[in-house]
UniProtKB/TrEMBL annotation:
It comes from Novosphingobium aureum. The keyword Flavoprotein applies. Its cofactor is FMN. Belongs to the nitroreductase family. Residues 7-194 form the Nitroreductase domain. The keyword Magnesium does not apply. Keywords: Flavoprotein, FMN, Oxidoreductase. This is Nitroreductase. One of its GO terms (molecular function) is oxidoreductase activity.
Length: 220
């Protein structure tokens, strides 16, 4: 698989088969991902990967918990901006539409959204966090690392879904994996597994902004 194929075939997968993911594969992917770039070569990302019993136990704790207050961080500020809100609404319409869930069916929408707790059935979950003193540039480094992982997972025939939703349970997660809430902020989860090819939620079309609406070329 070349890079273009990995980029084109990656999508956020929200239904998985039960096929497990081996430690060897994950170590190979995460070892390669160490070469992701970061400002000042800080490599600010840190993570814990769970599967099997530790993952089940975490999911049980999250199911028994309420979303935390105060929030770990806010991810929905762009919703105040009409074009960004429109993109979110288009995503919702495409995703729920693919599953035959009506816009007005708040209960079914919430039920699907709650499936974030079990990472949509993925057999492995990576949770990533960074020390609290890091700022926006280091958060962006974390994103580059995650995308590197997601592309390398494609090369291994694996799929993923980033889950900032997990930040609603950041303290429960950190407590479970033994990471200090005082010193670390949790960014997101990354569900990892094999895509369920039959699931309509894995095949809907994702809208993207046209190239010339997001990049300007000067001097060519
Ligand atoms: C940092 C980050 C956090 C995300 N969090 C969630 C999440 O909590 N739950 C979810 O279903 N999708 C989540 N997504 C997936 C996005 O909705 C998805 O990337 C976007 O709609 C584009 O679709 P694609 O990934 O299939 O190309 C997240 C994506 C990123 C990059």
């Amino acid at each position: 698989m070349n890079v273009s194929e990995a980029v084109a075939s990656r999508r956020s997968i929200r239904a998985y088969t039960e096929e497990p993911v081996s430690l060897d594969t994950l170590r190979r992917v995460l070892d390669k991902a160490r070469m992701a770039p970061s400002g000042c070569n800080f490599q600010p990302w840190q993570a814990t990967v769970l599967t099997g019993e530790p993952l089940k136990a975490l999911q049980t704790k999250m199911l028994a918990s309420e979303p935390q207050d105060p929030v770990e961080y806010s991810w929905d500020a762009p919703n105040q901006s009409p074009p960004h809100l429109a993109r979110l609404q288009t995503l919702g319409a495409s995703m729920y539409g693919a599953m035959g869930i009506a816009r007005a069916d708040a209960e079914a929408r919430k039920k699907f959204s709650d499936a974030n707790i079990v990472s949509f059935g993925a057999p492995a979950l990576l949770v990533c966090y960074l020390e609290r003193f890091h700022e926006a540039p280091q958060w962006s480094d974390m994103g580059m690392w995650l995308q590197t992982i997601m592309l390398l997972l494609r090369e291994e025939g694996l799929d993923s879904c980033p889950q900032e939703w997990m930040a609603m349970f950041a303290r429960v997660i950190k407590d479970h994996i033994g990471v200090s809430d005082e010193s670390h902020i949790l960014f997101c989860g990354l569900a990892i597994g094999h895509r369920d090819e039959q699931a309509s939620v894995n095949t809907f079309e994702r809208e993207r902004v046209a190239l010339d609406d997001q990049v300007r070329f000067l001097g060519f």
